[in-house]
Amino acid sequence: MRVTQQALAIARIQAGSGAADDKARVMAWDRLNSMLSTLASKTSVLLRFNAIVVAALAYVLVIAPSEPVMGTNAIVRLMGQIVGHGSLLASVVSCGFAFPVINVQWEFFGMRIDRPLDTESPFDDAALQRLGDLVAWRTRLYSWAWRLAVVGGIGFAVLVGIGTLH
User: Fold this and answer.
1) Phi, psi at residue 71, to the nearest 5°?
2) Domains in the chain: how many in total?
3) What's the domain range around 22?
4) N or C end of the chain, less CB within 10 A?
């Protein structure tokens, strides 16, 4: 079923020419798509935060590695390097968890790579379940991306604190 055919079928159900069960399915479909949209929006912001942290850490650790802990003893320098590299790694891995959350849905563009365009894709409970599973999977990915971004951000703050206090 093409996107336009699916949209027309959903519009007919919403206009009243469908059963109550079909209307409930459309409402659930809209809710799940709204959740995907919210996840994509939040992930976009999270990726921007990660980009800032990664850029700052890359500068501090690679381009000017002596600046944050200049003039300190060997233990403080080692702690700074461990915290900095750990934070950089956490932020990069966070990006790895975040990218699949904003993955492109080929069905949105009216095409699928894994099946021809003219095959039927019914708007049924199985399709709704697949969308629900997608929301659950992307929510888990976002959760890990957020946790790792927090670890990376805290590590960066600790590194700045070490550099400021010593």
Assistant:
1) 80, 15
2) 1
3) 3-165
4) C
Q: Is the pTM of this model over 0.85?
A: no
For residues 151 and 83, the answer to whether their CB atoms sit within 8 Å is no
pLDDT digits (tens, 9 = 90+) for 90-126: 999 999 999 999 876 655 544 444 444 455 555 677 7
Q: Residue 71 and residue 17: Cα distance in Å, rounded?
A: 76
Amino acid at position 14, single letter: Q
Tell me the C-alpha distance between 151 and 130, whole Å: 32
**pLDDT tens, residue by residue, 26-42:** 788 888 888 988 999 99
Q: What is the DSSP string of 23-38?
A: HHHHHHHHHHHHHHHH
Query: Which residue matches tokens 């010593």?
Result: 166
Number of C-beta neighbours around residue 50 at 10 A: 23
